[in-house]
Amino acid sequence: MEIESEAGCSRPKVRENDFIETVNKLISIHREFQMFLAGYLIISLCEIFTVGGLPMGSPLQQRVVLGFTAVHLGAITATLWVLMLNGIVGFQLLDDGTPLSLGLILFSAVALFVGTGYIALDTAFSYSGHFDSSRTGENHRNIGLYVLYQLAPLIFLAAFFVLETILVLRVLGEKKPMIYLGAAALLFAIGQIFQYVISTHICSGTNGKINGAFFETLFTLFAVVMTWVFWSSITEDDWPMPVSGGTYP
């Protein structure tokens, strides 16, 4: 649709309905990523109880911490699964923002959350006794939790970075977003180094007052922020641009 300007020159204008439709489309595009952010919020809330150094003197306090730990582990697995699926969504195998796309992501994430959480709860509270050997045995091995909490999230995370790298370099033909994606990967890796390598040294040096979990949480937050910046950078062309001096018919 074209409207005559005051100078007599015609210029394109955006219909109000088209503008609203574009905004709604943009919101739906980001819904899958908003699910990832919601999962990260749950993880952050659980970390207040699991790595926050809360007292565990009474049996009730111990049970509360164990319960939040189970939710924490389930949320980590489900959230990284959602992140990987966001990487797949970028290839438009399914229309993003549709009930089918959102439903598949949500229900599969819930299934992983419930499965991981149940194994963690059964291990902590011995509901079935199946995982008692992981608590009382010499090796304290729990293969189920190892696969779901350690191995699977690592695979999901690696798959996301590989998929997004292919999407950006091969499909979109861009290079700048890789700076943000690389920064997110680096920040996450630094957080894991603090958690698994430096934590014991920090804990010893501060007499147990602080450990690597504090820095791991901080750098993971930075990594999530950079992932959001990356995601916004590859979808910014979808944002509707306002036309200066124009009014909607």
Question: What do you see in this structure?
Answer:
With 249 residues, this protein is mainly α. Helices cover 73% and strands 2% of the residues. The protein contains seven helices and two strands, in the order ββααααααα. The chain has a two-stranded antiparallel ribbon. Strand 1 and strand 2 (10-12) form a beta hairpin. 26% of the residues are buried.
Give a summary of the structure in a few sentences:
The termini are close together. The chain has helices at residues 16-50, 59-89, 99-125, 133-136, 143-172, 176-205, 212-235; strands spanning 2-4, 10-12. It is mainly α and 249 residues long.
Labels describing this entry:
249 residues, mainly alpha, two-stranded antiparallel ribbon, 7 helices, disordered N terminus
Number of strands: 2
In terms of per-residue confidence, which ranges show pLDDT below 50 for 5 or more consecutive residues?
1-16, 18-28, 237-249
Count of individual helical segments: 7
Main beta sheet: strand number and arrangement? Answer: 2 strands, antiparallel
Strand adjacency order, main sheet: 1-2
Helix-strand category: mainly alpha
Share of helix, binned? over 70%
Gap between N and C termini: 10 Å
- Strand % is under 5%
Q: List the quaternary state of the chains.
A: single chain
| Topology pattern, helix = H, strand = E | EEHHHHHHH
Describe the global form. Answer: globular
